[in-house]
Amino acid sequence: xNKRQSVLETFYRGALCVYIFVLVxxxxxxxxxxxxxxxxxxxxxxxxxxxxxxxxxxxVARIPLRRPPIFRTVLLGLIGLLFVSSLFxxxxxxxxxxxxxxxxxxxxxxxxxxxxxxxxxxxxxFAVFCIAVFIxxxxxxxQAIGIDPFPWKDTTSDTYTNLPATYGNPNYAAHALILAxxxxxGLYRMGLRWTPWLLPLLAFHLYSTDQRAGWIALAGAxxxxxxxxxxxRRPKRPVLMVTATxxxxxxxxxxxxxxxxxxxxxxxxxxFPLDLSLLLRYQSYVSAxxxxxxxxxxxHGPAVYxxxxxxxxxxxxxxxxxxxxRMNGHVHNDLIELGIxxxxxxxxxxxxxxxxxxxxxxxxxARGTTPDQRRLGFVFAAxxxxxxxxxxxxxxxxxxxxxxxxxxxxxLLDGIWAEDAPQPAQQGRWKKHALRxxxxxxxxxxxxxxxxxxxxxxxxYAGMKAHSDGRLTEARASYEKAEESAPWNWHxxxxxxxxxxxxxxxxxxxxxxxxxxxxxxxxxxxxLPMARASLMMAQEALRGGADGAQAARGYLExxxxxxxxxxxxxxxFPAADELLGRVESIAAIIERDFTPxxxxxxxxxxxxxxxxxxxRAIDNGSEHASILYRMLMRVELGLGNQAGAEQAIxxxxxxxxxxxxxxxxxxxNLARKTENFDPMRDALYRRIDDLQRQGxxxxxxxxxxxxxxITFDWLATVQSEGYHDIASALDAHQGAxxxxxxxxxxxSRFASFAIEHxxxxxxxxxxxxxxxxxxxxxxxxxxxxxxxxAVLANGVAQLDQASRVLLASVRSHSPTNSLSTxxxxxxxxxxxxxHYRDAEAADNAPCESALNLGIASAGIQxxxxxxxxxxxxxxxxxxxxxxxxxVHWADTMIRTGRGPKxxxxxxxxxxxxxxxxxxxxxxxxxxxxLGRPSEAREHYDALLxxxxxxxDAKTRLQTERDALPQQ
Length: 967
Fold this sequence. Notes:
Blueprint: H1 3-25, H2 37-61, H3 72-88, H4 92-115, H5 119-144, H6 158-161, H7 170-189, H8 199-208, H9 212-231, H10 238-268, H11 276-294, H12 305-308, H13 315-324, H14 334-342, H15 344-367, H16 371-391, H17 400-418, H18 429-468, H19 472-485, H20 491-502, H21 506-519, H22 524-542, H23 549-569, H24 574-593, H25 600-619, H26 625-638, H27 642-654, H28 660-674, H29 678-698, H30 702-723, H31 726-739, H32 744-756, H33 760-776, H34 783-794, H35 799-812, H36 821-841, H37 847-859, H38 863-876, H39 881-895, H40 899-912, H41 917-929, H42 933-944, H43 951-962
């Protein structure tokens, strides 16, 4: 080897060390998985840039290439099988992408086999990898104690908590850690005395991952080393001794496994551990094996398992999906998954690769000419043993870090053996050139596809963030880019469809769901919203009356077919039964209301089916039990079963989670319809007793107090409307405000009742008692309640302050609140207004109260009352507040169609207070509303020319001026 070749190989050895170091540590938060997509991209680009450039340089410089003696043929055979399987796969694009990833790894293997020649070079590579893993483990500790130096936006999501460190999942970390532990021990034996300092942190991180298979793999690797040490210290017949080593190791392994099974059987009654995680893996082995045996020759295509294994689910997996709404991405067994990818032959080639790695590692021990070579042989044998054992319980061949390390280790071992192996005769020039060009072309294609896949993940994640923020148009644009970048992506069209569903546009969502299902017919999470969209279309069609009934039937059949597909995959999937319950309910309504001459029996078929599906959905653990019971009530009414309807709505109340009002409202409608209030009253009493007992036992939480207030409110309605029992209704209202004194609706309903039934003294006593109780506990009463209490206690002397407090609350009321401004504050405004009228009659009415109550009355849409109060305030105020009255009064006049009078009022106020900014602004705005833009523009220009205007006010002025029509 000449100097030029030596320098070239040194450079590429360094480049491979840099690659593996960066691969372990690299993260990128611009995709949904910060540690996987970027590592896949790095690997393919590293393969192209390093292996591709090395091939070109050696080609141009006429540097001879080495032919790897061990793994080249078997790896090419494996990748060839995966490629053929991809061509025949139902999911060809994604399978070719995965095959391209394996080819990129093969390219890195080939490069390593060319540039690594001796133990020192390999040891330096090991050291770099171990240092990178140590840094990652250190970062895992930093994450665990909460001082992460990286500015993660969310440290509570699964994306962050599952990293851990830089791997993306605790199991992924464990796969790398066990290999690093083996290398650290090997490096120490080869003379690197600092490496044991890495072991405590690596072992602690491995322990923290809770991964059991890793420890088993380590134990197996160390056992092989122990057996090999016995047989291979000075072998005269190395091949025979290696064979004996493997036989004894296999027998020991079988004995240990059998003994563990016997011990577990004796201790637990089962030969295997049976926690939920392991049960799921055992079941996945069954379904995956069935999937493999269904296509034993060519398999289903690489990366297909996670897409298409639903038809092979065991009953356990069906139930697991129904509960978790998740699907496995991989078999937790590399051998079985490779069989699914490329058939039994592919699994056999992978097993052959592992056995070759172990055997040649042991042969290196037996034939090594130096102690370091023999120790390195043990490292290789232990590495491939651990990888094989760990792969029986995981999928480390699919994890970027361990997959890359595996192929590089194959290359390192081939490089060591190729050093002394005889080189074959050079191939013909045309064949040599053709192979090089094919190799480079395949690398270019693999890199292009991986780059497109990464771009798709980038845009998809951008769409997810926009979607979660409610920016649906932006989300759709990102999802469309994701699908354009990666046309095989079935997630993107589903997400586009979901944005249209969020906008209640089912007709526009359906084509996207259909496209998602065309790309992946087994994508259950697309069938669910597709069925919902069809259901919404059926409901929309029925709004057209009998003319839309036929179209509605077609949409219902579509929804029914998708829901049944879901039930075939997972018979205990509650969402599918819920959908079918809705479908059959609407079908019954179509028969009843839109099908002339339909017999009752035809309706009942659908009602009965709806009842069955709704009960199944509830029994299977639906999260929407209260909603389903409300639906069930309507179904029972459709069947003429009043008792069943009452029972269903009662269960809706009992299972309600924050939506009690909806259930009680339906119960009330049922009571009115049947003129039988007894069931609802009895249910209300029982509910109150249950909540009170719960509060005494567990403490009165906010939910408990809110539930009591709602129940008391409905009891008051039932007592008043159903039984005309005013005294009991009054007691119920008092119970509502006593239970939840900070619930505005309870006070509003109590006040309306008290005003209607002349029970104001009871309301006043409740207000005083409630405020005193809250203040004694360190709480502040609701401002409207406190304002009324102040006036009740001190009369007109507190009217100005009370009206000021009330006005501030009216102004700050959010329009998104469930109660309107009038429903929240109207009763308090009325009470303060009554006191103002009393003071007015005594010629003692305060002017500021008139202004405050006038603005508050306008805020609750009582414009007639507001006009009178503004008139009174305008007549009695003499300072700048008169201009304030004019501004608010003018606004009320405009809202009641008296624009010219509003303008005259404002002009009068401007003459009296020419410097009052708000009056001048109100004049400009009023002129614009009266259709006099040129005059309005003059006023806006004058205001904008003023100095010392607040920036936000100036911006609003400019916006209003720019909106004026041009003449």
